[in-house]
Amino acid sequence: MRLDRQQGQQSWADTIRASAAAVEGAHNWRGYLPDAWADRVEAPLWVEEFQEYQLDAQRWVGYDADEQPCYTAHHYALPAQDASAGAAVAYSEMLAAWRLRDERWLVFRLIGAGGATLPRGFYVFSPEMPR
Length: 131
Prior knowledge:
This protein has one helix at 12-26, and strands at 46-52, 56-63, 69-79, 89-99, 105-112, 120-126. It is mostly beta strands. The protein has one domain (12-126). A 6-stranded antiparallel β-sheet has the order 1-2-3-4-5-6, with helices on one face. The longest helix has 15 residues, at 12-26. The two termini are 19 Å apart. Keywords: Membrane, Transmembrane, Transmembrane helix. The chain crosses the membrane at residues 106-125.
């Protein structure tokens, strides 16, 4: 979903407030963001969503007022080759990343390998936006 400024119909400030409200409803970009870091990230004004139709996969990219990415997330799950073994998913990954005010990225990654073990999550810093 892309929320653009509507020319001549409302002020830029009104558009920003409306966009921020719509982003909150469209995708929970704060979902895995630790409270301690919430005031150190740029909030997206709009979020574009991409969907893969052959796999269980989605991607989101959020943009700031300068139309630069400030948030990204993706999720995908690869089906197991042999579903009779008990695991419907062979591998899954969920990633969420936020651009910090110092231009680094705070990245959260949750990785699952089959149904035998619980997914494991961790945070890291990155100098670049994860792809």
